[in-house]
Write a structure and sequence with these properties.
This protein is α+β, with helices and mostly antiparallel strands. It has one domain (4-204). It has four helices and twelve strands, in the order ββααβββββββββααβ. The strands form two sheets. Strands 1, 2, 5, 6, 7, 9 and 10 form a seven-stranded mixed beta sheet that branches. A five-stranded antiparallel beta sheet has the order 4-3-8-12-11, with no helix packed on it. β3 (85-89) and β4 (92-93) form a beta hairpin. The radius of gyration is 18 Å and the shape is elongated. The chain starts with 15 loop residues before the first strand and ends with a strand. The relative contact order is 0.22. Residues 6-11 have low confidence and may be disordered.
Length: 208
């Protein structure tokens, strides 16, 4: 059986591509982050590989049991990588609870993965908060094609929103002391690939 995203295998270039959207939901009083809702649409080549691998009865479609197995495999493969989530407050990593489950389906011959996760501790809307998605092994490229694919539900007026798309050359130049040959040969041993991640950045004043 294939291992989704080939977790743990080193690669300096992505081999799997997905178009993503990320929706941030807030608490009823809009003072804190409630959850992150992810949706990833995978490229047709990878999707066809999944279809061939999990179509046990060879009927060119995945029934409910086969799709459940896809979901379980994706869930297990992503567990060691925090489900590709990047959340920081003023540069400090925020711990996210694992999603209770994730959902997979096929639509127009493409695999779609969706899940929702919550911060382990209350995440207040204060300071600079960054949200992104990245694969620390570089094997999977998660791309937000347009800025409106990263949204916040009813962002309060005390916060401003921006989408940060790092320039790869600038990111390498600014981090060249860290990005060594050893890193590219074994990126799974570091988390520096997050410097290339597209991020939604919220700048919020402290709640009075």
């Amino acid at each position: 059986m294939i291992t989704f995203f080939l977790a743990g295998q080193a690669s300096a270039h992505p081999h799997v591509f997905a178009e993503a959207s990320l929706s941030i939901t807030l608490s009823p009083d809009r003072s804190s982050v409630n959850s992150l809702r992810h949706l990833w649409r995978f490229d047709e080549i990878f999707s066809s590989t999944v279809m061939m691998e999990f179509d046990k009865n060879l009927d060119l479609k995945l029934d409910k049991a086969e799709m459940n197995l896809v979901s379980e495999t994706v869930y297990a493969s992503l567990a060691d990588y925090n489900y590709f989530q990047l959340v920081t407050v003023d540069g400090k990593d925020i711990v996210m609870d694992p999603p209770p489950a994730l959902t997979t389906k096929f639509e127009n011959d493409q695999l779609i993965v969706s899940f929702e996760s919550k911060p382990k501790q209350p995440l207040m809307l204060a300071g600079k908060i960054d949200f992104g998605v990245y694969d620390p092994t570089f094997y999977t490229a998660i791309d937000f094609l347009t800025d409106d694919k990263l949204v916040v539900d009813e962002l309060p007026a005390t916060c401003t929103r921006s989408v940060i798309r790092p320039n790869a050359d600038d990111a390498i130049s600014q981090n060249q002391k860290t990005l060594t040959d050893a890193f590219f040969n074994d990126p799974a041993g570091t988390d520096m690939s997050k410097i290339f991640a597209t991020k939604l950045e919220l700048s919020c004043g402290a709640k009075g």
